[in-house]
Each structure stands twice: as structure tokens, then as C-alpha cells.
Amino acid sequence: MGKRETKPWAFLDEFRGVDFNGQWPNLKEMFHITAKRYPDRKCWTEFGKDPLTLTYREAEEKIVRVAGYLRSQGVTKDSHVGLSGRNSVNWALGFFSAVYAGAVIVPLDNAIHGDDLKKFVSFGDVDFFIGDGDRLDYVKDGVKGCLCLDSDKTGFPLISDVALKEELPDSAYNPMGSDVAAILFTSGTTGLPKGVMLTHDNLVSCCYQAQANINTFYWDVYYAVLPLHHAYTMQAAFFEPMSVGAQVVFGKKLTVNQLLSDLKEGQITIFLGVPLLFNKLAKSLQEGLKKRGAAVYRSVNFLLHLSGFLRDVLHLNVGKKMFAPLLKQMSLENTRLCISGGGPLPEFTASMFHRLGIDFVQGYGMTETSPITHLDPVENFVLESVGQIISPYQQKIVEPDDEGNGLIFIKGSCVMKGYYKNPQATSEVLDQDGWLNTGDVGHIDEHGYLYLSGRRKNVIVTEGGKNVFPEEIEDCFQLYDELAQVCIIPYIEDPVLKNEGVRLLALPSESLIEKCSGNSAEIEREISHIVDEVNSNLISYKKITKLTVIDKALETTSSAKIKRAEAIKRYADC
Asked: Which of 491, 438, 506, 496 is nearest to 460 (CA)?
């Protein structure tokens, strides 16, 4: 179901033996092929005080010059180049310049504390560092050289100046497909982050093969607003568009106003995000309709349901025309496809975009799988599923329970080479036959669609041996604006039998605190009502039996995922 027989990457045959050898080009060859096919297409764009756009020809010319500079500074095929900065054209230039120089890229979170940055630079054996000006002081003493992305006041060369100089002779190493292209550090929601070694074949094969599940074209405009050092954004909003000649617009602020401005100005056609972003847009639309009065609210919602019926039953997509004014108001008039990753999406949100006439799909994967392994085909979108596996990857469920839920294993060209300097951790998740234990639990239906339950290590075992996955319950709270954070953790319900109960840590939102005038008892009553609503739709052993209202935000990763282990540790004795 949903798979196309034609291969979107068939055009590579024209360049095989000329611009690359083997099954797949490396990252450098991939970009060069696209620059040959679409030299005058817009490649990278950023808005703001000093807007900047580069065509593919202009981008490659600058890449070659900066790569030459890096080689003159001693960057070779054995070098590790660190990269840390806000999403920008210069970040992209720094990334591919290191690729063209033949080095291994080590993208690092721009939001982590300077001391932590130094630790990652040291552990990752970074020789040369490219970053925003406020990052350089932390690492300059531990590397051989630095290049600045955004300021000429650091004492280090500015990448945009270097990109204007005469290029140096090309003597860079051309990587093999099996060579490591990047070391990406996992978010570290539990335990210490690990450095995932991804090869050129990992990243490039995943980039092209994902297109069998989803249509992408040279005329598309992608919006990259999530941090680019994350595997999800790097692959889906950075490599994907560059493999077909599409444009990337870099977003800098994760706020609704900035997002709407960028969507409109950039005329975005493909919008990648996380559930939180799409939830905000969907709720913003509903609230806007309510402000227009009950009659308008009811009539528009009737039309939305009608549009959904026509699309689902008769396969007629009338939403784009029917709701053109609404789409324009939301800056989505040019958007044809939304892709959500990083967590499950509420039915309300996905249905809203679907009825508005915008294709909406979900995906699944992890940094260790480059990262995309599953995508919901646009033609056969299944809301409850994270999609079908990308061919020719393989999947299997190990040790399934009575409901078919078991550990998800993945095998294929997307699977990492291993964890950097950590063979023990590698052997714990990757067997000799190439099967990767994702640590996630789920089941597969008869059509090959994958359904997730949660992380095996997060499971709560209740009385009677029933397994409860915290993620399933947390998803039920996504659309409650009264809560700024929710985290489900276990607690010991029976000290003798060691049975675990389901406990909710809930941080009230500013709006709820204001509504209750800061009265803690009233705040807890309001949240208790929400818990009762959620519990009414949960089967008995999954119901929340203990509520803890917290007054301090839980620690999160840079992708806003709560560090569950830290939360459990903090509230273990409460």
C-alpha cells in the first residue's frame, strides 16, 4: 500500500561513473550533482536584518573556497570539524565546506552551556571548530583553529569573508561510502549522550530512499526551523531538499509570529516540525474562529468535516480552495505538505490540516538510523501509525506480548556504524547480523504500518504485571493549554509487593496560574479535573493514581524532550 514503483533517484544513473562510483554518491558528490542539474535554483535563504539567498552555483563556489581555506589550516580526511551555531546560510556553508575538505563533521547543540560544549569538543576529538562568535571562546584553546559564522569581532576569520577569497588547489580526500561523514550526539534524555557515527552511505541512501514514500520536487521550498544539529532536521529539511534541487529557508526563532512571517515570506511548500508546533497552529485557528462568533465557528467546522468526508470517501481535495482565506491567514497558502516527527500527533491536529487540504504525514526513526526508517505514505495516511518502513530496510518485532507489542529491530543501509569510542554500548544495541535494537516497543499490522507504544526502559509495571508506557498517557495531555509540562513516572504503590503506580508530574501554565490568581489549591483542583477527563478515557490499569503539581520546570533536552531519568530522580522521595 502506498509505495510507488518508480525510483525517484533513478536520475543518478546519468551521473554514475562520471561524478561518482558505486551505488550512492557521497555527500560532496550529491551536492555537486544537484549544483550541475540546477545551478540557478535558489539553494539556501535566510530572512531578517540582513537577508541572504544563494543559488546552488553560488553556494558551491563559496563551499569550494572555504574548503580550500580549511585545508590550508591543516584540515584533512582524518580531521574532525566541530560545528555549532544558529540555523543560517553560514551554518550550511560551514557544514558542506567541511564535507568538501574531506573531514568528519561533529554538529553540536548551539544551546548547551559552554563547559558542556568543551566536553563534547574534547570527546569528539575536534581539531577545527566553526561556530557562532559566542561559542568560540569556550573551545579556542582546545582546537587548532576556528572560523566564525556571525561576527567579525572575535579575532577569528569570518566565514563569509573567507568565502570571497580565491580558492586554493583542490587536494581534498574524496570519502568512500563507508567512511564516517558525521558524529551526531544523541539528546541524552536518559544517561549520557552518545556519539552516533553515520557514514556517507547511511545519510545519502536514507535521503534518497525516503523519497519512495513521499513526493519532493526541485520547485519545493523547505522550512528548517528546528535545530540543524538534530538528525531529524538535518536529514529531512537539509539533505532531502538538496538532493533534488529544492530551496531551504532557515528559521531562527521557534515562535508562532516568526514562524508565520517566515512561512509567508518564504512561500514555504514543505513544513517540517514537531507536534508542539502543529498543535499551536491548529489551536490558534480554532481560537480565531471562536472569536468570530458561534455562527461562524459552527459553519466553518461543518465545512471542515465536509471537506474531510469528500477527501476520505471520494478522494476529492477541495480544502485548499474552500479554505483559501483561512490558509492565507495562517500563512499556509503555499504549503502542500506538513511532516511531523519527534512524537505522536493528536488526531485533532492531523485532521485539521487534512481537512484544510494540506497533506500531513508522520515519520519514525532515531539518530542511530540516519534517522528516518518509516514514513506515512501521503496516498495512504494512517493517523495512528508512524508509517511504513522505507524499502529496502527491514523490520521485526522481538518478544511480542499477547497484543503483538514487542521490541522494534531495524536493519538496512541507514543503520549507524556504531557509537564513537564506545564499543560496549554499540554491542548492546547492534548485533553481528546488522540488526539494531531501537529500544522502542510497538507492533506492525498486516499492511506493514508500525504503531508505537513507548520506550522499553520507561515501562511501568503495575499490579498484575500490566505494562504501561508513559508516552501513551502523556500524549493525552497535548492539547491542554493549562499545562506547560507533563511527565508520567512510576511510584511504589505497594512497598511489600513492589507494585508500581502511574504518577503525573504537572507544571501549570502561566495562563492557569493567572486564572487561579496563584492560589495553589485552586490550581491543583483545575489540574485534577483535567486528570479526571484523561482517566475517563484510559483503561483501568493505565489510569493516573497520583498527581504531583510542580512549581519548577523539569530539565529538558534542546529538542524540548523532558529528561525522564532526572525527573524520576528529583521526585523519587516525594
From this structure: 491
Q: Where are the alpha helices (DSSP H) in 169-223?
A: 200-209
Residue from 201, 159, 282 nearest 24 by CA = 201
Residues 6+ apart with CB under 8 A from 359: 336, 337, 338, 378, 381
How far is residue 37's CA from residue 35's CA, in Å, rounded to a whole number? 6
Let me know the angle formed at the C-alpha of 233 by 244 and 441, rounded to the nearest 5 degrees.
115
Q: DSSP code of 443?
A: E
Provide the residue type at 543 as one letter. Answer: K
Closest CA to 352 of 288, 298, 254, 283: 283
Whether the predicted pLDDT of 341 surpasses 70? yes
pLDDT at 377 over 90: no
Write out pLDDT tens, residues 474-527: 989 988 999 999 999 999 876 766 678 999 999 999 999 999 999 999 999 999
* Predicted local distance difference test score (pLDDT) of residue 1: 41
- pLDDT value of residue 119: 92
Using the CB atoms, write b or e for 262-271: b if 16+ within 10 Å: bbeebebbbb
Q: Which amino acid is residue 22, in one-letter code?
A: G
Q: For the packed helices 275-291 and 256-266, what is the interaxial angle rounded to 10 degrees?
A: 90
Q: Considering only CA atoms, which of 239, 246, 255 is closest in space to residue 221?
A: 246
Dump pLDDT digits (tens) for 71-111: 999 999 989 999 999 999 999 999 999 999 999 999 999 98
Q: Comparing C-alpha atoms, which of 105, 161, 113 is closest to residue 137?
A: 113
Alpha-carbon distance 35 to 19, whole Å? 12
**Helices (DSSP H) in 475-536: which residue ranges?**
510-515, 520-535
d(CA 487, CA 406): 23
Report how far residue 129's alpha carbon sits from residue 142's, in angstroms, rounded to the nearest whole number: 9
Distance CA 440, CA 230 (A): 19
* Three-state SS at 473: helix
| Cross-sheet strand order for the sheet of 483-494 | 483-494, 499-508, 546-549
Q: Quote the percentage of the chain above a pLDDT of 70.
A: 96
- Tell me the sheet residues that pair with 317: none
What is the pLDDT confidence band of residue 464, given thresholds at 50, 70 and 90? low
Residues 220-254 as b or e (16 or more Cβ within 10 Å = b):
bbbbbbbbbbbbbbbbbbbbbbbbbbbbbbbbeeb
- Alpha-carbon distance of 135 to 381, in angstroms, equals 42
Say which residues have a Cβ less than 8 Å from residue 325's Cβ, sequence separation at least 6: none
